[in-house]
Write a structure and sequence with these properties.
By secondary structure, the protein is of the alpha+beta class. It has helices at about 1-15, 30-45, 65-70, 85-90, 120-125, 220-235, 250-260, 310-320, 345-350, 395-405, 410-415, 430-435, and strands spanning about 80, 95, 100-105, 110-115, 130-135, 140, 160-170, 175-180, 180-185, 190-195, 200-205, 240, 270-275, 285-290, 300-305, 325-330, 335-340, 355, 360-365, 380. Strands 3, 4, 5, 6, 7 and 8 form a 6-stranded antiparallel β-sheet that branches. Strands 10-11-12-15-16-20 form a 6-stranded mixed β-sheet, with helices on both faces. Helix 2 (about 30-45) packs parallel to helix 3 (about 65-70) and helix 7 (about 250-260) packs parallel to helix 8.
């Protein structure tokens, strides 16, 4: 997207050099931001030909209502509004909240699925595998909704909000903890280790979200670099990447990971193409692989679920034409499209701290695969087991991946563990938070 970034900078200079009074279009007082949202969508929205020709802004009470009223449904499940600071913070891991996730077992017991190290939950010692039996003194069943999902009523992510949780620990004891939400820096790498399987070294990497390290240029993740250097140093011959709760994030970091995983022989070949809307075809672009490091892999085994989305799917799609890509767990979410924020193009949005993040482009791999709105199918469907810690070979999906690494197949016994959760963490969030789902 280097070409696009250059053009973006040029557009900003030209636009800010104009006098807003020169705009011939009349604006009803109080509706300037709604008009700016609509104008920006008309220019950049991937499905802009599906937008209405005109809009009566007075019929929409909020900016969010306007956006919801004009997007291309049901295809567009992704466009959202936020603030400029919230958007920028999320993509470098600056968060606020408790800093953990939930997941259910087949018998609908609720467990902590992941915890960020520096978050309030992490600092209190919470671990994946702890069962949650009560929230704010109420049993989990009390939070079930009429649609079969769950609303745990934990409040906004604002610092200072507290909730209490009763846990049953792996040793059978119970504990009740009150946890206060706060700002924190989240980590992306939840586990990295190496297994000896069938006479070879198999790396295991639990990666939670594609977040860049603030201040690095070009955009990339120092955590990714550290992990890949670890696996290189260990001399792994196979790699399992656990993306089961990874909702996406930075495209630049997805490219970085892809470049570590690709074989040297395929460096320089097409990674993916970007396609914008019909009025922006001059800015369509492509990215080629540029091999980083010394990993020499012929396949990658991904652990996935319906919570694996966006940048997670981009990496899978990038690699698929060049190596054996094996998905174990469940089908992915289905987001072959992406976004960039539009306040950089519109002075009214910028001045009012409104960040519009609609779908602006679609991606396709080197084989032209682009339409995967139903997600990528898992080759072997295996049930989730959040009652086991990261890297524990008793974890069903990890056990199945190790089994495949050893003998190229997954047993029927493992496949029989599959269940489709009625509710997953990604269901609890919309917009920006759906890309980085955590409480």
């Amino acid at each position: 997207m280097k070409k696009l970034n250059w053009i973006i900078g040029l557009v900003i200079l030209v636009m800010w050099g104009c006098n807003p009074k020169d705009d011939p279009a009349p604006v009803v007082p109080g509706q300037e931001v709604k008009k700016a949202i609509f104008d920006s969508m008309t220019e950049w929205y991937f499905w802009n030909q599906e937008l209405p020709a005109t809009v009566d802004f007075s019929k929409f009470d909020t900016n969010e209502a306007l956006l919801d009223g004009i997007i291309f449904k049901p295809r567009d499940r992704f466009s959202y509004l936020t603030t400029q600071q919230a958007f920028n913070n999320a993509f470098v891991g600056r968060n606020a909240g408790h800093g953990f996730g939930f997941a259910f077992t087949a018998d609908e017991k609720l467990f902590i699925s992941f915890v960020f190290d520096e978050a309030p939950a992490g600092k209190d010692g919470w671990k994946r595998g702890w069962e949650i039996t009560q929230i704010n003194g109420k049993p989990i069943a009390d939070y079930k909704t009429s649609s079969g999902g769950y609303d745990f009523k934990l409040g906004a992510s604002d610092p200072g909000i507290s909730n209490s949780f009763t846990f049953k620990l792996p040793d059978g004891t119970t504990t009740t903890r009150t946890n206060i939400k706060a700002e924190y820096q989240s980590n992306s790498v939840l586990e990295q280790k190496v297994f000896e399987v069938g006479g070879k070294k198999v790396g295991y990497w639990a990666y939670q979200s594609f977040k860049a390290t603030a201040g690095l240029s070009p955009t990339r993740s120092a955590e990714v670099t550290s992990s890949m250097e670890f696996f290189q140093g260990q001399g792994i011959q196979d790699l399992i990447i656990d993306l089961r709760y990874n909702g996406g994030g930075s495209v630049a970091v997805a490219e970085q990971i892809s470049n570590y995983l690709i074989q040297t022989s395929n460096s320089g070949k097409l990674m993916y193409t970007n396609k914008l809307n019909p009025s922006k075809t001059s800015q369509n672009s492509s990215r080629n692989f540029s091999k980083i490091g010394s990993l020499a892999l012929t396949r990658v085994i991904f652990i996935t679920s319906r919570s694996s989305a966006s940048a997670s799917e981009l990496v899978i799609n990038n690699l698929d034409p060049y190596m054996d890509v094996v998905l174990i767990g469940d089908n992915t979410f289905g987001k072959p499209v992406g976004s960039f924020p539009l306040s950089q193009f519109n002075r009214v949005l910028k001045d009012n701290d409104v960040e519009v993040v609609p779908i602006t482009f679609a991606t396709a791999n080197s084989a032209g695969k682009a339409e995967f709105f139903d997600g990528f199918p898992a080759r072997f469907k295996v049930g989730d087991s959040p009652q086991f810690g990261w890297g524990d070979p008793k974890d069903l999906r990890l056990a199945a991946a190790l089994q495949f690494a050893q003998n190229g197949n997954v047993s029927g016994r493992m496949v029989d563990t599959y269940f489709k959760p009625k509710w997953e963490l990604i269901d609890a969030f919309k917009g920006l938070q759906q890309e980085f789902p955590a409480y």
